[in-house]
## 1
Amino acid sequence: MTLGVVFALVAGLVWGLVFVVPLLLPQYPAALLTCGRYLAFGLIALPLGWLDRERLRQFTPADWREALKLSAVGNLLYYLCLAAAIQRAGGPLPTMLIGTLPVVIAISSNLRDSHRDGRLPWRRLLPSLGLIVAGIACVNRVELQHLQAQTDFDLGRYASGAVLAIGAVVCWTWYPMRNADWLRAHADRSPRTWATAQGLMTLPLAVLGYAALWGWSALGGSLGVEMPLGPMPQRFLLLMLAVGLLASWLGTLCWNEASQRLPTSLAGQLIVFETLSALAYALLLRGQWPDKLTLAGVTLLVAGVVLALRIQPESVSSPQP
């Protein structure tokens, strides 16, 4: 279990990097960032897949279909929503909304997997939920004040960013539970091989997406940047390779290792490492020390997750036939 927590920590540290990429490439549309990141992930997975080809041959068509579903929702759709949210609402608010994932996953697991994993008592979950909502409210207040001080502040754009971030939360509530289902049902399979398989399934989706964007641009459609690499090609390529290797492949590998070692409800709580890393990276990029209200929001968020972690699942009797 200790090793599983360490893997979850490393996954959170590298996943936090994806929150700053849209801020480092503000001119690039979210769709191009998404396709670029996962094109890099897929290309990195090709040589890894060749080295692991013997294990990959053990996968059934059903396994490959599951990897495709996980890649489409947990990779492409999730990051499309997240990148667009960050570009519209800034870094901290989407980060804190993603920070609700530990409790959202716990609630979803309560409803979906209680007979397998036990049920967390609802009366004991409510205080942690209240703390997390309060933490989000604190950071949201700080960000609104920061954005309203800008001359080009657009409340509608900020609100749409929040909605997109909620879409990202939905995607990443579904993904870890389905991913954990497969890993726990295939305990004899390598988490590294499963990460590579998801990269291989992401590649054709990313190629199709990139080709569609390029074709749209060639036909006169407006993307805001010149295809294929935009106005900062070197930075774009380096960042896509970095997040493709670190955040996509290494992050997925570490998360798979954690998911195979930890109960789903506990692994879900440890996504808080991603939230804290992303918030720290965003504030470092801004060159700003968090003010008291932001620190209070972070403290409330962490306290809510710690409180949820202390809740022991209660066994649920199987229904009588």
Note: The chain has one domain: 2-309.
## 2
Amino acid sequence: MKKKVIVAMSGGVDSSVAAALLKQKGYDVVAVFMKFWKESKSINRCCSLESQTDARTIAKKLNIPFYIIDVRKEFKKRVVDYFISEYEKGKTPNPCIECNKFIKFNVLIKKALELKADFIATGHYAKIKNNSLYIAKDKSKDQSYFLWALKDLNKILFPIGDYDKKEIRLLAKKFDLPVFEKKDSQEVCFINNSVEEFLNKRIKSKKGDIIFNKKVIGKHNGLHFYTIGQRKGIGIGGIGPFYVASKDFKKNELIVIKSDSDDSLFKKELKFFKSNWFINVKFPLKCKAKIRYLSKSVDCVISKDKVIFLKKQKAVTSGQSIAFYSNGRVLGGGVIM
């Protein structure tokens, strides 16, 4: 008897190839498109009407059942409201991780139970082996950083984890999928323009002083618009560049520095919370860590909720995630305090 798998279909090339590969391997594949947010104006967003149409077209092409699940109410509560709330607190959130944890995989598991499916699958670049999560073959596209909060790995499949992006596009062409040239979506899916514009409509901003060497050199638009290490968009012209070093909420001041190699921008340690582990962890734990998606993994030692780096790390940002690795395996992760 064929194993049944529920595949999250976004209308993009990755999830489309994931579904095609699973069908080729003999699985009974069911496609699910999730409506997260009101239709995006960008045609390359997962929430756009075009993406929904593309997902339906691919499902028809593969001759697999297609379902649409409306999760907009839960998405707003768990992802969008969280996103806004974190910025109000002066933090820099990771909405994709919250979405994966509370929406995408949660919804897929529920649908799998409803349809008596054996597995769920997505087009993420990651691998699962022996009930353990690993980085993908294509390290430039690896998305394991966004998956540290998952549960039930034994029920999850990542069909494209053993391929690089070029191979995925070639497979899409081989399977005659009309999305093989579709561009990747890299922005926050529920924001049409800029994060600043989105937040400005939802958070009451309070202007304040920008401080350099204890002197006022300009005005900021609201501390929640800025993140540690930021260079662009600070709003000081002609005498820069400047980098955001810290935010003083009591004085409503934005402290900036002139060099991104300034020692004030580096930290030797951090604390984290909301941790999730894929291993039976014993402290102290020596491993590697990533403090943001595009950063390199670096050596560290973990003691319960504290991470000490062997070398100081630049722009450690509250609200971002930290993911822990060892020999390509994801050990777990948490949220930076």
Note: The chain has a mean pLDDT of 92.
## 3
Amino acid sequence: MGQLINGQWIDDAGMVALSEGGEWQRTPSIVRNWIGADSPDFPAEPGRYRLYAAWNCPWAHRVLLTRALLGLEDVIPVSFTSPSRNSNGWVFDQNAGYVNDLFGSSALHEIYIAGEPGYTGRVSVPLLYDTKTNRLVSNESADLVRMLPQAFATSTTTSIDLYPKTLRSEIDRWNDRIHSKLNNGVYRAGFSESQSAYEAAVEDVFETLDTIEERLVDNAYLVGDKLTEADVRLFPTLARFDVAYFGAFKCSRRRVCDYRNIWKYARKFYARDGIADTVKFDIYRRGYFSRSEKRNPLGIIPIAPDIDWTL
């Protein structure tokens, strides 16, 4: 992924954070400011903030889903990096149509430096940037999914409440479980460097999917009959599962389309207005099967599975 140290770019793409037992560990986000209607530093002004995202990143996908569900596309413009990182990390490839139209920068780490010249930390997406004061707002997807509906409640074009007060404790429980065992679980499986770490991760993944399958027997969504933040955090993993995680990350016990209730739920989510525009199956396939010394040394990209997501 690469990182900045005191504003200097360091390419550490070959390094993977592992525990002594060979288990992959996610690096926490550190830019965690908050937009608010009464915030003196980051007021909720439509058009003021720019979202940086990558199509293949599931964490950025959460924010794109939130933006689409609430109709905030005109309120929060977005710039996409090229789907594939190189020695400069996330980059803007003008020839492929991935252009940063704020500064004309060639790499995302230049945006981080523009917002915080001495920044030290990972250069990741999603990133929300304050174009008025040239400051970094947040690179934590969970915060952004929670923050944007609250901050821009008067600017939304829909009446969806992704975090209703009466359901918050249940939403939080699902969020914690999905994040640790499924969203992160597939990565723990894919980047494991021991058999025991891999098997533990895969067990978490499918135990969680099995629980969700049972939950959806009598519920349209994870928390009852209305879509909530928990569903937003689940869907990016489901969208990538059969085309990428099943093969590239060896999560091969079952496919999402093999689950009767989850498959129906996933396609219903995909059919909502604006959601299909946030999903890029071919980019997922090519990204997760890109050349990797450990996972895919020959860089051979498999043929896409013949799966129809339309209802």
Note: The CA atoms of residues 3 and 122 lie 4 Å apart.
